[in-house]
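WARN retry 2 of 3 for item q-0093 after timeout on previous attempt; input resubmitted unchanged.
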Amino acid sequence: MTLDPAIAAVLKRSADGLLPAIVQDAGSGRVLMLAWMDDEALARTLATGRGTYWSRSRQQYWVKGETSGNVQHVREVRLDCDADTVLLIVDQAGPACHTGATTCFDNHVLKADA
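OK item q-0093 returned
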């Protein structure tokens, strides 16, 4: 699958061709996870409406929920002002984190105002 050339032209990728993808829940507004996308993953996400990412550790594409059933139905994809990060606003079915937590940011609070 090929990314629309108009979109590809504005993206500012890392040296390894990746963009960080922040995933946010459409209903609650909570940040669910951070993943990585290359042009192919972004093109697949835009075409299918399913969160599709590049696994840096496994060096392969993965569709969120393909094995767990915890799918992401993508409502919107936005590009930040620097064109170096994408934001996916999704309807998340089930937990987003592979640990079973609702978000990948439920643990390890480094600072919280009381």
